[in-house]
Amino acid sequence: MSVAANRLPVRLQVTEGPQRERGGDRSIMAHPVSAFQAAYISIEVLIALVSVPGNILVIWAVKMNQALRDATFCFIVSLAVADVAVGALVIPLAIIINIGPQTEFYSCLMVACPVLILTESSILALLAIAVDRYLRVKIPVRYKTVVTPRRAAVAIACCWIVSFLVGLTPMFGWNNLNKMQRTQELNASHTEFVIKCQFETVISMEYMVYFNFFVWVLPPLLLMLLIYLEVFNLIRKQLNKKVSSSSNDPQKYYGKELKIAKSLALVLFLFALSWLPLHVLNCITLFCPSCETPHILTYIAIFLTHGNSAMNPIVYAFRIKKFRTAFLQIWNQYFCCKTNKNASTTTAEPGN
């Protein structure tokens, strides 16, 4: 989910309305796709082809498997929905912007905002998952009465509402329109103009760094780090207690929680690893305007953010037994044209 799939250095290009008419259709035509852009597009398409089916498989697994119906997996579905949207919506938009079409300012802004919404949705889903795992080990007896399906649904709805508010903030006015008008000495109320649609052209770096990163990305990541450290601390305290012959169930419970917590912490680690480089580049752009970032680093950061949407299904398949079992069941029933007769009993067993 790249907030800068189009942040490569370009010269700001503004075309006044009358000039567009005189110049004909050529003034809004995109440049021919270069070999480098073709390689970029190919990699993006490959990421999308992995991300969309993989995350649809996650949603499908939760829908068909009763063992995956607790609150944690509902939050995982919310995360998967955001990742599906990355492959199906954000990556195509990033490809279009990379080609460099010329369009009206707010049209470009509408293209740039979806990635901001989906990024925040992913972060809040990861935060909800972390809080849920903490409650499971902190209050295991009362957990099911505290974390009900209704409350989980309300939490998911709140996460998406906040994500839309944060991601659409540039549409409410925190954007580069006034800066562009001052630079070009245009009066927006009298003159129409089009721009070469680039992320940094329309999205304010002050918004990206001070508001998006310093308020809505970095603090949640640090909070999740603290939560998982406490989760591991609580679990290890329980596992290190001297076990009597009648306490096998608590040991089994906390052992399973430890495995799942490790897997979900890995998801968080991969998210941070994928997103922090791009935010660091944004900080460099804001705080050191004269610094030039090598294009290859920018592209690597972009591919990391988009590629993160394809990583989670792989983590679930290799690390969480319930997902692995559900994936195999789906494969056997719907793709290999055979029914796994033991699937219903297998998936009902408590897994990792």
Automatic annotation (TrEMBL):
The chain crosses the membrane at residues 39-61, 73-97, 109-131, 152-172, 213-235, 264-287, 299-318. GO terms for cellular component: plasma membrane. The keyword Endoplasmic reticulum does not apply. CDD domains: 7tmA_Adenosine_R_A1 (cd15071). It comes from the Eukaryota. The keyword DNA-binding does not apply. Residues 54-316 form the G-protein coupled receptors family 1 profile domain. InterPro entries: Adeno_A1_rcpt, Adenosn_rcpt, GPCR_Rhodpsn, GPCR_Rhodpsn_7TM. Keywords: Cell membrane, Disulfide bond, G-protein coupled receptor, Glycoprotein, Lipoprotein, Membrane, Palmitate, Receptor, Transducer, Transmembrane, Transmembrane helix. It is a multi-pass membrane protein. Pfam families: 7tm_1 (PF00001). Receptor for adenosine. The activity of this receptor is mediated by G proteins which inhibit adenylyl cyclase. PANTHER family: ADENOSINE RECEPTOR A1 (PTHR24246:SF1), OLFACTORY RECEPTOR AND ADENOSINE RECEPTOR (PTHR24246). Belongs to the G-protein coupled receptor 1 family. This is Adenosine receptor A1.
